[in-house]
Design brief:
This protein has 13 helices and twelve strands. It has about 400 residues and is of the alpha/beta class. It has a six-stranded parallel β-sheet, sandwiched between helices. The radius of gyration is 23 Å and the shape is globular. The site of magnesium ion (MG) has 5 residues, from loops. Pathway: Cofactor biosynthesis; FMN biosynthesis; FMN from riboflavin (ATP route): step 1/1.
Length: about 400
């Protein structure tokens, strides 16, 4: 196979040289998150550490450290929390605490798909991170196949200035033998977006913290998750795994008793959504990008039904909490609050959107329903209907 690495000027995808330069932080979940009960290695470590100094990590500082170099981030923490030590002392205390957690870092949803896709098409990829090179190497050593997928890896200590300076991306392009203007940067942080634009590259931002997209004005596009990247927009080979407008995902499962929701599904939209308590599920919810998904719903004493749902903050209503809103595609005679609901989520449709009118929101949700109903007939998705997880004391079922 002739790869871009063999000949950087050969590119069947138009005039673009095939070079998405990708930063590590946009591919793996190391970032702190807003909700204090949510998983995030940086948050977890800092919470423990600050406790020793009698300080409380509230997650707000997270917004000030994303994308910074380690010493810049350290300076922010030392100052924000008034710690009685120098930035250097803080760095040497906290560094081993972080390193111990690297093996737990999970690839972001869609990261492996993206890497395998571009690698399979001979598209060169670079990894350009503000973290020191040895940290980057160690972090990616836990992710099978990543090291071999990047033709260039650069750490923040291998350039004179880290992001927001464009230097790290310019160096990546140089080492890949590519013109910066034909590189696509995928970035999660503001300093990274600034660096990419400063390098005269196209930049797609995937903000790592919720409700931040309005800040990324200099990016060429802001997407909600890696699932939403459309490579063809940038002259790169399109993903080939979308099926009838839906994207198969690694199935995941969530369940619990049906609780009261916002009290507007049926009333305001005419679309009831059976909410389950998100207590105990914050990690699971945080791991999955907000958006519209579908799958199968098992309801105790009733049966298994098709289901379409949104996960997130419902931009139209701008909720404070991330929730899941499953609409069971069946007419029920009455409410089923308190009953056990189990969901197998098997496919993705689209990111959550805002709408200029309630009618437009409702119309869109009905389109989602049609798409889910149809897709769930495909063997790829329909097989999960029989998943053991969904079978909870169905009527006439003596086996439970
Ligand atoms: P809430 O705000 O309390 O969630 P909704 O107006 O969203 O209220 O209605 C959801 C409730 O309606 C569910 O908890 C369930 O008891 C009932 N319900 C009836 N039919 C359905 C359905 N097809 N899908 C989801 N929930 C339904
Ligand atoms: N809310 C939004 O604000 N934007 C959306 O794009 C959106 N998509 C949805 C798709 C489906 C399939 C469902 C069931 C709900 C969706 N909602 C969306 C959530 C809707 O606003 C929610 O059900 C109500 O807020 C009820 O609490
Ligand atoms: Mg509801």
């Amino acid at each position: 196979m002739s790869t871009a690495a063999d000949d950087p000027n050969s590119n069947k995808w138009g005039h673009w040289h095939p070079v998405p330069a990708i930063t590590l932080s946009s591919l793996s979940k190391t970032k702190p998150v807003k909700q204090h009960d949510q998983y995030g290695i940086v948050s977890d470590v800092l919470r423990v550490y600050l406790n020793k100094y009698g300080k409380q990590w509230d997650g707000k500082a997270a917004y000030r450290i994303v994308g910074k170099t380690p010493s810049e981030a350290a300076a922010v923490i030392v100052e924000d929390f008034g710690l009685p030590l120098s930035t250097d002392e803080f760095v040497s205390e906290i560094t081993p605490m972080f390193s111990a957690q690297w093996c737990k870092i999970k690839a972001l949803p869609g990261a492996n798909r993206l890497i395998n896709h571009f690698r399979g098409h001979g598209v060169q990829m670079a990894l350009a991170s503000n973290s020191p090179r040895t940290n980057v190497d160690t972090k990616i050593s836990y992710q099978p196949g990543w090291k071999e997928s990047f033709s260039v890896i650069i750490g923040g200590d291998e350039v004179t200035a880290g992001k927001p300076s464009p230097e790290i991306f310019l160096e990546a392009a140089k080492r890949m033998n590519c013109d910066p203007s034909s590189c696509l940067v995928i970035e999660d942080s503001l300093p990274g977006v600034t660096a990419g634009k400063g390098a005269d590259m196209k930049v797609v931002a995937v903000p790592s913290l919720p409700k931040q997209s309005h800040l990324y004005t200099s990016a060429d596009e802001v997407i909600n998750s890696l699932l939403d990247l459309r490579p063809e927009m940038w002259g790169l080979p399109p993903f080939e795994d979308w099926i009838e407008g839906t994207l198969p995902i690694e199935p995941w499962y969530i369940g619990g008793p049906v609780v009261k929701g916002f009290g507007r599904g049926s009333k305001v939209l005419g679309i009831p959504t059976a909410n389950i308590s998100t207590k105990g599920y914050s990690t699971l919810l945080q791991e999955h990008p907000s958006g519209v998904y579908f799958g199968w719903a098992g309801l105790s004493m009733k049966g298994v039904y098709k289901m379409v749902m949104s996960i997130g903050w419902n931009p139209y209503f701008d909720n404070a909490e991330k929730t899941i809103e499953p609409w069971l595609l069946h007419e029920f005679d009455e409410d089923f609050y308190g009953e056990e609901l189990r969901l197998a989520i098997v496919g993705y449709i689209r990111p959550e959107a805002n709408f200029s009118s309630l009618e437009d929101l409702i119309k869109r949700i009905h389109e989602d329903r049609k798409m889910a109903e149809k897709a769930l007939e495909l063997p790829l998705y329909s097989n999960y209907r029989n998943d053991e997880y969904l079978k909870i004391s169905l009527p006439g079922d003596e086996s439970h």
